[in-house]
């Protein structure tokens, strides 16, 4: 199996793009104003015939856009009209088709979360950033963690735990002191959230093909919810997380500000 990072996707389809771009925007004044300006300048395509999607907003809106267009098989280029904008390019209106033609592609594979709830229901969701398990009440959660069917941590007493992709490793994962993962590393981050016991456990780096299983101990007394990006399942008793390489999206970034460089710079941020 070739574990090298994927680079084969073209930045965008060849040929003129004017009128073939689908612009989408967050529900903020800044993003809606940008949408109006760009559509008047470059035209607007419907989502089914577009050759490229330009998302206007912040990182949260970018995640929504990736989920929305996952099966449209078109690249997505984000321009920051939000706050952080880690997954976004700088907002500029001029010469956008030329800029899109020079953009560098990054292939992102999501995590697939499969949950079983206390009443036996099975639910699935995808996550481009992370899958997190979170306590629902004032009492700490108790989780048993297995990797590829082998128990690695018999009991983690905590506020929760998460599994992050490289692209998502600088988001919630970083805020709870998880490691930043370079895009080409083919790794996942398994990170505890406010671990109480074992107090010194700081998480693990796992190969991308690992299957991570969480069992909720004392689930009735200590209920837990599972969240895949913006999809939440409450009262879960078992959660399985793995990277799904049958699913993929292509994100586009300006060459001078590509995602790999941003992730590298985050590791040296003061």
Provide the fold topology:
Blueprint: E1 21-25, H1 29-42, E2 52-57, H2 59-68, E3 76-80, H3 96-102, E4 104-108, E5 111-117, E6 122-127, E7 130-135, E8 141-147, E9 150-158, E10 160-164, H4 172-175, E11 187-193, E12 204-207, E13 212-217, E14 224-228, E15 231-233, E16 236-243, E17 249-253, H5 259-266
Parallel strand pairs: 1-2, 2-3, 3-17
Antiparallel strand pairs: 4-17, 5-6, 5-16, 7-10, 7-14, 8-9, 8-13, 10-11, 11-12, 13-16, 14-15
Q: What is the number of independent domains?
A: 2
Morphology call: elongated
CATH class of the largest domain: Mainly Beta
Number of helices: 5
- The averaged pLDDT comes out at 91
Structural class: alpha+beta
CATH superfamily membership of the largest domain, which one? Probable inorganic polyphosphate/atp-NAD kinase, domain 2
Rg over CA atoms, rounded to whole Å, is 20 Å
Please give the largest β-sheet.
6 strands, antiparallel
- Proportion of beta-strand residues: 35-45%
**SSE ordering:** EHEHEHEEEEEEEHEEEEEEEH
Summarize the amount of helix as a percent range: 10-25%
CATH topology grouping of the largest domain: Tumour Suppressor Smad4
- How do the strands of the widest beta sheet line up side by side? 6-5-16-13-8-9
Counting DSSP E segments of at least 2 residues, the number of strands comes to 17
CATH architecture type of the largest domain:
Sandwich
Poorly predicted spans: 1-15
Report how far the terminal alpha carbons are from each other. Answer: 38 Å
